[in-house]
Amino acid sequence: MYTNLKNLFGRRIRELRKKAGLTQEELSCKVDVDSKSISRIETGKFLPSLDLLYRLSKVFNVEYYEMLMFEHHKDTIDLRKECFELVNSLPDEKMQLGYKLLKVLAED
Question: What pTM did the predictor assign?
């Protein structure tokens, strides 16, 4: 369970970093840690200190609790973009299945 929380937190940090338009290297410079630390956080191998959490929240311009919102809502534009990227990365056989699933959802 603890590992799952670290993974969820890491994914959330990656999402906030990408939303801010930053690379891991750029973020690491802004929060004064090495880029390997950012990578370890994003892959769920490491949880940051409270001090680093504070610095991350300032860079992302969010409150502490927002970094812990794993089940947050995404706006429609972000969802469409992510769906498009996912679809484009699928091999043909999975694309067929994805199409069928979307078609069923669209019928409701």
Answer: 0.64
pLDDT in tens, 18-66: 999 999 999 999 999 999 999 999 999 999 999 999 999 999 999 988 8
Closest CA to 64 of 50, 75, 74: 50
3-state DSSP of 2-65: HHHHHHHHHHHHHHHHHHCCCCHHHHHHHHCCCHHHHHHHHCCCCCCCHHHHHHHHHHHCCCHH
Q: Report the CATH fold assignment for 2-67.
A: 434 Repressor (Amino-terminal Domain) (1.10.260)
